[in-house]
Design goal:
Blueprint lengths: L15 E4 L2 E4 L16 H18 L3 H13 L10 E3 L2 E6 L8 E6 L6 E5 H5 L6 E7 L5 E7 L6 E7 L5 E9 L4 E2 L5 E4 L10 E6 L8 E5 L6 E6 L5 E7 L4 E7 L8 E4 L7 E6 L2 E6 L7 E6 L2 E9 L5 E8 L4 E7 L2 E7 L7 E3 L8 E4 L9 E7 L6 E6 L4 E7 L11 E9 L5 E9 L10 E4 L17 H4 L4 E5 L9 H5 L7 H16 L8 E6 L1 H12 L4 E7 L5 H5 L7 H8 L6 H10 L13 E6 L8 H13 L6 E6 L10 H18 L5
Helix pairs in contact: 2-12, 6-7
């Protein structure tokens, strides 16, 4: 076998740590660069590069397939795609891709008539850079200035620039190291934002006045709790700046006048552990979305003069999970889910209990409010899609109660929705709980166990996985796969309790749900044992690591993107960027032995065994501040040392990117094509 096809071997170097009287051995601890967040250790870099060479050597024979799949996926992308223009003040704003370009172009034109003008070219900003991500882009209240932030290495530390929209030239003011939304002051002369500290946490909110030295920006708020992070928002009437601070389970909000950002903040209500709330302001009334009385949240109101005295407006409901609200001049809108399906409801201020629910045409779908920047509107911009219906942009005319279709995602290579079917089934988890699974197949799919099936899930942080449309899924479905989304506990697909039932001491429900969904789909004839392929990223990558430890025999190929697989060691290291803020999600194994024992019982890295595993592909980003590169690197090293099979195990590290992988729409498509090629290759379906 050529040397390039020999798997890399990561040296084992003795390293131990003791917690709660238990000594842990971690011979691959050295893969964490001691100089992190700078990664310069020669041995670390040499190992990652060797893994990349091994990846490239094994994928070399699959390059024609990767290119075929890439062109197939690219053929489904409208290269000169553009957004539907949206009015904001005196201007219509839109963005688009031009043919061949990786990044967006941003435009505006006067509502009163006149020429369209390019206000930002992401491609120009990305020139010569391996990675580029535009963060926030906000226009000043007077419409003359623009603040925009970007990250050019994947570290998620953004640099803010200012542009004069009348001249097209950038101002000299530059603010490095931001990690928050950006909010203009009412006079268009200042910006409110948060900076990332040395541990990549936003524990502050600052105000910069244009023309001043950004290093002398005024500190408006400093958060004392290392587990809390800060952000800023603007009220619907744009007269209050909202300072938000919190962790995964607790929040606290302050208000400052947008016309006087250095005024003393108004504390809405002091933090109470386990209580979450968000706020907006209409005239002198606060609207509050909170879980203080019901797990599925309620909406309350309060006077600006007595912001902590909350009065009921819309009660919590066992059936209807309220996920949020948006205020407009003549009505307000609530969003939520009933039995896992999105609901958008228009309500009047005079009779808030009466809701006009917007009806959508399919039994399974996802829908939400899109960009609605103005306060005084008569129609709402809405995004809609399903597993068979491409992304659709509607305007909902409130008075007429009518949806107007503005745009449907085009598939240039051709797409006939009538050739596909989607269904939503319920399967019983091992504890008896019914788990929804959304499935996409080609019409005529036979449930005789002969087909492969791809199973996807996330299952963490209360983030639902909607039954939405992804053109890339057609690559597998058109080749005979069923594509299934398991709406497992840990997300909030079925309500906030669904999330609570998959975190902390109930975390293993998430993994069990996924495995049980796979077994049920086999029993129902969608596939057979060993014919399931699976993928997940970040916390979904942790899921991949856990399920291959629990039931490796189910899977024919597994892809784990930026996987959170070294859970115990990460939660024991409070110097890492996210760790303190993550304890409410996973538990604090530093102070709590029960949390230590429980995390240790399921942490994928800690539970690798000497057994057979399916073919696996791991990916990571060298600059990723969320899931550090050494987590998948250590997992792969340990698997290589212990697994008893000869199945392929690959690790690909993006050396110039972060948590989201490569940037640029075609670079991302290429990575999607590589993943699909790996899956088809391992399933013997390369022809």
């Amino acid at each position: 076998m050529p040397a390039s096809l020999q798997p890399p071997v990561a040296a084992q170097r003795p390293y131990t740590s003791t917690h709660h009287g238990i000594t842990l051995s971690d011979p691959w601890h050295w893969l964490k660069d001691p100089g992190y967040p700078k990664i310069t250790d020669k041995d670390v870099l040499a190992y990652l590069k060797e893994e990349n060479r091994y990846y490239e050597a094994h994928m070399a024979d699959q390059k024609p397939l990767v290119e075929k799949l890439f062109q197939e996926m690219k053929g489904r992308v409208k290269e000169d795609d553009s957004s539907v223009p949206q009015k904001d003040g005196d201007w219509l704003y839109s963005s688009r891709f031009d043919k061949g370009l990786q990044y967006r172009l941003h435009y505006r034109k006067p509502v009163s008539g006149g020429d369209e003008r390019l206000i930002l070219d992401e491609n120009k900003l990305a020139e010569g850079k391996e990675y580029f991500q535009l963060g926030d882009l906000v226009i000043s209240p007077n419409g003359k200035l623009m603040a925009y932030a970007y990250d050019d290495d994947g570290s998620e530390r953004f640099e803010v620039h200012f542009r004069d929209l009348e001249t097209g030239k950038d101002l000299p003011d530059i603010i490095p190291g931001t990690l928050s939304s950006l909010v203009w002051t009412s006079d268009s002369q200042g910006l409110v934002y948060g900076l990332a500290n040395e541990n990549w946490r936003t524990d502050n909110i600052h105000f910069h006045h244009l023309g001043d030295d950004p290093k002398k920006a005024k500190l408006l708020y400093k958060e004392p709790d290392i587990g809390f992070s800060c952000d800023v928002d603007l009220s619907a009437q744009e007269n209050w700046i909202i300072i938000e601070t919190g962790d995964q389970v607790t929040s606290e909000i302050r208000l400052i006048p947008a016309s006087d950002p250095t005024a003393k903040p108004i504390l809405v209500s002091a933090r109470k552990t386990g209580r979450e709330y968000t706020v907006d302001v209409r005239d002198r009334t606060l609207f509050i979305h909170t879980n203080d009385e019901h797990v599925n949240f309620r909406i309350a109101t309060a006077s600006l003069d007595q912001p902590g005295e909350w009065k009921p407006l819309i009660p919590g409901s066992d059936k209807h999970y309220l996920t949020g609200f948006t205020l407009f001049q003549d009505f307000f809108v609530t969003e939520g889910r009933i039995e896992g399906l999105d609901q958008i409801e228009v309500r009047s201020y005079s009779e808030p209990a009466k809701a006009e629910r917007i009806a959508f045409p399919e039994p399974s779908y996802t829908a939400d409010l899109s960009n609605n920047p103005e306060y005084h509107v008569s129609k709402l911009r809405i995004d809609y899609e399903s597993m068979v219906t491409p992304g659709t942009v509607y305007d909902y005319h409130v008075a007429e109660k009518k949806l107007e279709t503005l745009k449907v995602q085009q598939i240039p290579s051709g797409y006939d929705a009538s050739q596909y079917e989607t269904e939503r089934i319920m399967i019983a988890a091992r504890d008896g709980v019914q788990i929804p699974v959304s499935i996409l197949t080609k019409k005529g799919f036979k449930k005789d166990g002969s087909h492969p099936l791809h199973l996807y899930a996330y299952g963490a942080y209360g983030m639902a996985t909607p039954p939405d449309f992804h053109a890339n899924r057609l690559t597998l479905v058109d080749r005979g796969f069923a594509y299934a989304i398991a709406h497992i506990r840990g997300g909030d697909d079925m309500g906030h309790q669904w999330y609570l039932d998959g975190k902390l001491t109930k975390r293993t429900n998430t993994f069990n749900d996924f495995v049980d969904a796979g077994r049920a789909l086999i029993e129902l004839g969608y596939t057979s044992k060993g014919r399931i392929t699976a993928s997940g990223g970040s916390a979904g990558g942790e899921l991949m690591g856990a399920v291959v430890n629990q039931a490796p025999e189910l899977f024919g190929a597994v892809v784990a993107h930026v996987p959170f697989v070294d859970v115990l060691n990460t939660m024991l290291d409070d110097s890492l960027p996210l760790t303190p803020g993550e304890w409410p999600e996973w538990g604090n194994p530093i102070t709590d032995k029960a949390a230590f024992d429980f995390i240790r019982s399921y942490s994928p890295y800690d539970n690798v065994q000497a057994r057979a595993y399916p073919p696996m592909l791991f990916t990571c980003g060298l600059n990723d501040p969320r899931v550090t590169y050494w987590e998948p690197a250590k997992m792969v090293a340990k698997l290589r040392a212990l697994k008893t099979d000869k199945n392929l195990l690959l690790l690909k590290t993006n050396m110039g990117a972060g948590h989201g992988g490569k940037s640029g729409r075609f670079e991302r498509l290429h990575e999607a094509a590589e993943e699909a090629a790996f899956i088809l290759w391992q399933m013997g379906m390369t022809k």
